[in-house]
Amino acid sequence: MASSTTGVKVSGKKPAGDQAETPSRGRAPSPAGPGGGGRFQGSLRDAATAAFVAGVLGFFFIGLRTDIAPGGLDIKARWTAWIVSILVVFAGRLALNLFVFKAERPVTLGLGAQLSSVGETLPGLSKWLVRLLLVFALVLPFFLMTVFPSKQRQFIDLAILIMTYIMLGWGLNIVVGLAGLLDLGYVAFYAVGAYSFALLSQYFDFGFWMALPLAGLLAAFWGIILGFPVLRLRGDYLAIVTLAFGEIIRIVLLNWYQFTNGPDGISGIPKPTLFGLEFSRGEDGFAAFFGLEYAPIHRFIYLYYIILALALITNVVTIRLRKLPIGRAWEALREDEIACRSLGINTRNTKLTAFAIGAMFGGFAGSFFATRQGFISPESFTFIESAMILAIVVLGGLGSQIGVVIASVAMIGGIEMLRNLGFLTQIFGPGFDPVQYRMLIFGLAMVLIMVWKPRGLVSTREPTAVLKEKKLIGADAVAQGEGH
Amino acid sequence: MEYFVQQLINGLTLGSIYGLIAIGYTMVYGIIGMINFAHGDIFMIGAFISLAVFLLLTSVLGFAFLPVVLLIVLIVAMLFTSAWGWTVERLAYRPLRGSFRLAPLITAIGMSIVLQNFVQITQGARVKPLPPQIRGGITVMQGSTEAGTIVVQLSYMQMIIIVTTLVLMTAFTLLIARTSLGRAQRACEQDRKMAALLGVNVDRTISLTFVMGAALAAVAGLMFLLLYGVIDFYIGFLAGVKAFTAAVLGGIGSLPGAMLGGLLIGLIEVFWSGYFTVEYKDVAAFSILAIVLIFLPSGLLGKPEVEKV
After folding, report:
1. Which of A121 and B37 is assigned the larger pLDDT?
2. How far apart are CA A156 and CA B193, in angstroms?
3. Which of A36, A108, A158, A351 has its CA at a distance of 20 to 30 angstroms from the CA of residue A430?
4. What ipTM does this complex have?
5. Chain A neighbours among B 276-295 (CB < 8 Å)?
C-alpha cells in the first residue's frame, strides 16, 4: 500500500529518478512537508486500490450468481450490487485513511489510551469490580424479572447460555491458558458430558445430580485418553490431533445408531430436581411445596443458579490450583518445557492432569447443556463450537479469568443481539434477511478485535507467585512471554 | 485384484486433490509458522470461481471446445483465487506478524467463518450441481469373478487430475529449488530477521507464498468441481481439515511430505470405504494420523525440531 509519506521520502532520496514521477503526484513533495493535499491524495489513491481489490474479489461472488435452473445451472449478473459494494469499500477506506490511519490526530487516539489506563487502575478496582460482578450475577434473574417482565424468559435463557460459555471458557483456560496446550477439540468433552448424562438417563434412569459427577469423570477419562498419544507432540501438531479427536467423537456419535440414536439425537432428557422436587405443576412440585404459585420461570431461574454455581466452582478450583504445585507446574510447562524437565517436573503427569481437569469441567458443562435442552444431537458439537470457545479464551486474554467473562458476554450476547435486527428489514426492504449476516459479522468482529488487541481484551496479568506486593504485569511484558 | 487396482486409482485421484491443498498449508506453515485455517475456504472459493467462469464461457459466451474452456477456467480461477489469498493475508495475518502465536490462529478461524458466510449469502446455501463434462476413459485391466467381469477403468478425468498434479508438483519443486523467489522463501523459512537484513523483502515473499498456495487451491477446486460435480459453501471445511491432516502426516513444512501425506490420506479413505465402512473413513484417516504422530512426532518427512537451550 502506498502511504502518503512515501512520495516525500522517495523524492528526498532519489531526486533524479523521481523527477518524472513528481508531476503526476501533484503537490505531494511540497516544502510544507507531509500534510494537507499530499495526505489526501495518498488516501485517495489507497482507497482506489482497495476499491479495485474489492471489485476483483467481488466480481464472481457479488457481481455474478449461479443458480439452479431447469436444465442445469444458470448464471445471473447483479451489476448494481457489485458497483455498490465497490463504492462502499472506497468510501470506507477513504474515511478510515483520512480520520484514522493517516490522520495527524486519529480520532481513535484517545480510545486505546483510555482503555489501557482503565487496565492500570484495575488492581485497586479489580477486587471491587469482581465482587460487584459476582453480586450482579447472583441477583441477575430477579433483576431481569423486575426490569423486563415481558421478556424475562428470553433474557434468563440468554444469561444461562452466556454462563455456559463462561464455564466452558474457564475450563479450556486451564488447558490453553495455564498449561499452554493448544486444544482445538474441546467440544469433544462437552459432547462426552452431554451424551453420558443422556445415555445414563435413557438406559439406567439416572437423574441429573447422579449423572453429573459420572459425566465429569467420564469426560476426564476421555481427556486422559486423548492426552496419552499427544504427550510428545507440541504446538500445531497437538492442535491438529485434538481437532481430529473432536471430529472422531462427533462422527462416532453420528454413526453408532443403535447406541446413540445417530443424527436423530436423544430426546426426553430429564430436568434437574431440587432435592427431589420437580419443577412441575402438581401436588409434589416445587411451587406447591413452598406454597408458591406455579410459574414456568422457576425452572429457568433454577437452571441459571445451577450453571452459575458450576461456573463459580470451575473458577475457584482454577484459582486455587494455580497456587498449588500442580498449577505452578502447568504454568512452568507453558513457559518452557525443557526447563521443566530439567527441574524434575514430571511433564507427562502435568500434561495429563491439565487435560483431565479441563475435560472434566467440559463434561460438567455438557451435562448441564443436555438437561437444559432436553434434547441433544451430534449437530450441537461441531468444530465451530470448539473454535468459539477457543476464541472466547484468546479474545478475553489467555489465562485471564475475568477476560473470559468479558469475551463471553460480548461474543455470545453480541450474536444473540444480532438476531434482533428486524428493524433493518424496514430500511432495506422485505427481501433483506438480517439474520443470515449474523455469522459474517461475528467472524469479522473476531478478526477485528484480534487485530486491534492481539493479546486479548484483558492484556494485563496477575502474577501467581509474588515477593512482597502484587503488581500487575503490563501488556508489553506479557508480550515478551512474561507472566500471562 | 481388479477391485484393488480400481480403488488404488480412485485413491490416487482423491489424494492428488488433497495434496494440492496440503501444499498451501505446508508452505504457509513453513514460512510463518501458523495454521492458515482459512485455506480450506480458499479452496472452496476457487471451486466457486471455476464454476462461474465455466458457466460464463459455455452458456453466456457460447464456447464449445472443452480443452480451451478448461484452460481458460484454470487460469482465471488461479488468478482470482490468488487475489483472495493475498487479501486474506493482508487483512488478517500481516497486522499480527510478530504477535504471539495464537492471535493469527484466531483471525484465521474468523476469516474462515467470514468466507463461508460470505459465499453462502452471495451464492446461496443450496448445492450447485454441474453435470460431468469429461466422460469416458480407458480400460486398464479386465478380470472375471463369480459375480461377473470387473473392468478397471481409468477415466480421462482421473488422468487429467493425476497428470496436472504431477506437472504442478514438478513446477513448484523447481520454483522453490531454482528461482530467486524460492531462495527468498527458503531464507525466510530459516530466519526471517536475518533474511530481512540481507535484503529479502520478507513481506512480499510471504504474500507471494499465500498467492502460490491459493493458486494451487484453485486448481484443486476446479478438479473437485469436475470430479464430483457438486459444490456448496461448506466443502472447504472438511477438505481443509483433511488436507491439513495430510500436511501434518507428511511432516509440516515439507513440500514432498505434503504430497505424500495427501496421497496417503486419499488412499486410506478410499480403501477404508472400499473394504470396510464408508461412515468411518474419516475416523480411519484421523486415527492413522494419531498413530503416525505417536511414533514420528514430526511427521513422515518432517525435520525433527532441534531445540537449543
Report:
1. B37
2. 52
3. A158
4. 0.86
5. 279-280, 282-283, 286-287, 289-291, 293-294
